[in-house]
Amino acid sequence: MSNVRPIRILYMEDDPGLARLVQKRLGRIGHDVDIAPDGQQGVARVVSSAPYDLLLLDQNMPVYSGLQVIRILDNQYALPATIMLTGSGSEETAVEAMKLGARDYVVKDANGGFLDLLPAAIDRVLEKQRLIDERRRAEEALVESEARFRAVAETAVDAIVSVDSEGRITFWNAGAADMFGYDKEAAHGKPFGHLVTADEDPDKPVENPFRFSGQQYAVRGVHAVGIRSDDSTLPLDVSLTSWATPSGTFYTAIIRDVTERTAYEEKLAHMAHHDALTGAFNRHYLAEILDREVARAKRYTHPIGFLMIDANRFKQINDEHGHDVGDTVLCAIVDVISGSIRAVDIVVRYGGDEFLVILPETDGQIVVTKQRILENLAKRTDLERLVGFPVTLSIGCAHWTPDAPQPIEQVVDLADKRMYDAKRQHLSS
Description:
A hairpin with a 4-residue loop joins β13 and β14. By secondary structure, this protein is an alpha/beta fold. It has three domains: 128 residues, Response regulator (Rossmann fold), CATH 3.40.50; 105 residues, Beta-Lactamase (2-Layer Sandwich); 155 residues, 2-Layer Sandwich (Alpha-Beta Plaits), CATH 3.30.70.270. The longest helix is centred in the first third of the chain and has 42 residues. α2 runs parallel beside α3 and α11 packs across α12. Strands 7-6-11-10-9-8 form a six-stranded antiparallel β-sheet.
């Protein structure tokens, strides 16, 4: 058995014989036809009964004519798909009916030939109505979808921005206004690239992913830089996708401010590479530092100097004054070292009270740097007042050249050995 619902048709006709003839003919092809003997009863049937798929209207009927029925239903209710049946020579009435909303018309002839034309006309009108209904539903769905999108977008904390195929902004939510400092009116029509640019590493240039050419594509989790209305910048995470419409391809970006996340990641990276107490690089990071500096020294053929530094009588400081005072002394030593070297030089906390200073592009200058550190520490009379005696250092020096036969680790060990030699001399004195 077929589950297809028969087409429901209301035929308004004041000629009972003709009405029954049309009802019988259309019933043979599966249509369900009701009859109304005049326009007034026909309007009442349309209003009060289940919806009809199609109206067949005779023009000349008691009470309401066919044109009046169309006007009443179109003005006060919803006019179903309608076919006007007119007599020969009444083409003007048919044209008027079409202007008022009828989908088609059929001329009734005395020989009944219109009965053969009627099924094809019904099929045409129903197909046209189906297409109209589909388009209406699609438009309603689009409106509903857009309303839902706007409702979600306007409440989102993230910036949600839509642009056209030329890259100009067409939609700008409240999150975008808060993030960039432009209201909707100011942002509308602005080029997306003026507000969001790819976060390119100058050493590793990448193709800008935010180009709009009308082609469909999507990118996700792109690191970018946002430019606010006051020209300040902020780190962003951008995901972008395209969507096609009859009027062209558009793009929607979800933009997240990752300032806090970036700061947290930088903090974690700093913690991984730096000593928590003194702020100097930690020993875990030393191997990476040495690999990097050796590669650079070989590329430019320059030497690297090393200073291995140890705090004299540091155990005595901890034993007599406690670890808090010892920590203060260590931080002061790093402060003195950092203030005595160049910005390119590197300080590493090598052990408990030992520090390694790496001096790229230096050779004979390491002795000068060593003396500067000792002189600057001697000026820290606050440390002498803190522990009751001058805080001094033992320093061992060594340098490495790219053509040296020994590996750089042996040179570091040599600086360490010379530091212990200096420490023994300090103890003996």
